[in-house]
Structure formats: structure tokens, C-alpha cells
Amino acid sequence: MTGMTASRTADGLAANGSRTEPGALRSARTWERARSIARSCAGQPLPSVPRALADALGHALAEPLLALTDLPPFATAAMDGWAVSGPGPWRLAGAGVLAGQEPLPLGRDTAVPIATGAPVPAGATAVLRHEHGAADTARGRLDDRSPAPVPESQDIRPRGQECRSGEPLLPAGTTVTERVLGLAAAAGYDRLTVHRRPSVELFVLGDELLTRVAPRAGRVRDALGPLLPPWLHACGAELIGRRLIADDLAALREAVLRSPADVVVTTGSTAAGPVDFLHDTLRAVNARLLVDSVAVRPGHPMLLAELPATADGRARRLAGVPGNPLAAVAGLVTLAEPLLSRLGGRHGAEPLRLTAGSALPGHPRDTRLLPVFTAGQEVSPLPFDGPAMLRGLALADGLAVLPPGGAPVDLLELPRR
């Protein structure tokens, strides 16, 4: 409409819903606001899918995990010894009960050998530990040699001690770890309903990158190709491709247009250098730029955009992080991690709040992400924390989130296995 200028909303989008031109959105977001935009632009988590237990690892539960049985499903022995009925002495009866067997009921004042984990016979009042019993097999008699009389229910794990059938065990949004798989199997599950992991394609940009041998002749090794895929996987992503792309506008445009991934992650080309073509690429593909620079060090020239949907209508996003290694990690933590967590249906991890063991230097104006190591509840800074460095990060327990001027607020744990 002529004679009118569309105003911009707080998210940098036109008030009338039109697309924002890449390059027109230059005011840096605060670190907290950038992460909030990354979460909210994901919309709803990706659809839920059924997965066999072996295939559910790393996904997020799409519905609460409810117990399908009591745990334990029957009373079991907590120790090796004898299942006994009454105060003793007892008459020995039977050859013993092993795990996986279904025992016969136990008569009054009788005992039967029992193994740890075996079902306790009906009528048993306790389990007498092996070291506390004196069995006379010739006389068929068992005496108690424990320091005190055997209390009722000693060393019997009662049915339902851990949970009852139908009881909620874990909420939706819980990441399926090895421990979750064990609990799900114990609770009776063969399959889990989980959110699909967001697919990610990684584009590492730059003519100067080598994939093997030592740096030479003005070229450097690609550190991000090995570093970022496992980091993205720990954030819940399903990496479907990783490519080195030369500093070429046409090549980058074609790669972005053709990518089938839910999220494209690019490294480098986020600033305004002579071969930084990412903004031009986003303009060429008619992307919607949501974040263009974040007030965080290192890594402030990072961006987040909505790409045109796939042919089947599936939404796509692009997270552009700087090319310097530590700055790229800062970009991943700031934009990619909250986006991927939301798409994958994961609960956002709460940051740890710890105490500074020594001075933690901040940036005068911006949030700073500083590699630190922890000792107890205290954190201390590490050297080698420049944007192009990885040595400090390799030694770090986490990244301290420092407000302008310094002093720690939060500690984001590195996603390690």
C-alpha cells in the first residue's frame, strides 16, 4: 500500500506479517531474547512416532511414561538366604527358590532356601540372611544365629515398592537416556512414543578449510566439521548431512534451497566481509530473518531465519553461527540448542547456579560465555578463551554466562556423554 511504512514488531518482523529483508535487521538481540526467539520460532514439537526401545535413545518422550505393572511385580528376596515363616527355629522344606521360578506356599514354622531376586513364597514372613542361618540338613532344621530376632518382612522387597501399575514414572519431554530405557523395560514397555528428532544439515563454509593434514599455505584445518555433529546430536538433532561449501553465493544458495532438513546450520559468513554471502543467500531464497546479531561474546554476528517450507509444507529454519570455533559454539548454545530442544519436544535444561571461585571477567556491554572449570560448587575461568581458540573449551566443565561487566549468573553444562 503506497503512502504507508510498515512498522516493525519487537521480533523484527513487519507488523503486517510480511517478510523482513535480510540485512535490514541489525540491532543486536540480548542473549536471553535471542534464545527466547529461537525457542518460540520452533512452534510445536515435531510429531510423535512409535519407536522400539533400541531406537528410542536420544528422543524425547511424547507422552508420560506410566508403569504397566507394579515394580517389583511380586514380592522378592533382597538377599540370599532362607524364606522363613514364623519366629523359628524352622523346619527345612523344599529344594530352594531361584529367580524366575514360581514357588509353592510356605507352611508355618518352615523355611526354604531362596536366592536374591527370587519370588518370596506366600506365607513367608521374612528372609533370613545366609550368614545368619545355621542349617542342619541331617535333622532338617534351620536355626537363627543373627544378633537379634528376625523382624517381620526383613529383606523382602514388597510388591509395588517402587511403583504401582498406572503410576506416572516420567513426564513427557524427558530425554530417553540409557537409564530411561532400563526403567521403561522394567515397567513393561517394548516401544515408546517419542517426538521425531529434528533433522539437521551442517554446512561448513570457507575456501580456506582443510579436512586433513596440518595447516599450510594460508589454509587451516576444519575444526567445526568434527566438533559440531556430536554436539548437535547431544542437543537432540538427527544429522542427515555435513558438507564443506566454498565461498560462492550460487553454491550456498543452491545448498540452502535444496536442503530437506528441518534445521540448516551454517558456520561462517555471518558478518559483512567480502566473501560473507549468507545474508545475500537468505535474501535470494526469500527467508524471514528473525535474529541478526546477538549481544554476546564471542559470536555476536550470528543469525536465525525461517526458510521457505518444503514442497510438502514442512517448516525449515536456518541457524547461522560464526566460523571461529569458540564463537561457533557460542552460536550453537545461543540459537541452535533452544531451537532443537523445542522441535524435539525436550524439556529445557535448567542452568546450574554456582559461585565464582575467582574473578570472572565479563564484557563491558554484552553477555559473555566463558569456558570454566568447576571445583565443588565454585567455578574458575580457563585461559585460551579467544573466539578462534578451542584449548580452553576442551578443558572446560561448562560455559559461565556472565552479564555485562562480569560476575557469574548461570553455568550451562556442556552436553557430554
UniProtKB/TrEMBL annotation:
Entry keyword Metal-binding: yes
GO cellular component, one term: cytosol
UniProt pathway: Cofactor biosynthesis; molybdopterin biosynthesis
Family membership noted in the UniProt record: Belongs to the MoeA family.
Protein's name according to its UniProt entry: Molybdopterin molybdenumtransferase
Function recorded in the entry: Catalyzes the insertion of molybdate into adenylated molybdopterin with the concomitant release of AMP.
GO BP: any one term: Mo-molybdopterin cofactor biosynthetic process
Cofactor: Mg(2+)
Pfam families reported in the protein's UniProt record: MoCF_biosynth (PF00994), MoeA_C (PF03454), MoeA_N (PF03453)
Annotated spans, Disordered: 1-29, 132-170
InterPro entries the record matches: MoaB/Mog-like_dom_sf (IPR036425), MoaB/Mog_dom (IPR001453), MoeA-like (IPR038987), MoeA_C_domain_IV (IPR005111), MoeA_C_domain_IV_sf (IPR036688), MoeA_linker/N (IPR005110), MoeA_linker/N_sf (IPR036135)
Compositional bias segments (type: Basic and acidic residues): 132-146, 154-165
Catalyzed reactions: adenylyl-molybdopterin + molybdate = Mo-molybdopterin + AMP + H(+)
Keywords: Magnesium, Metal-binding, Molybdenum, Molybdenum cofactor biosynthesis, Transferase
Domain MoaB/Mog residues, every copy: 201-342
Signal peptide: none
Coiled-coil blocks: none
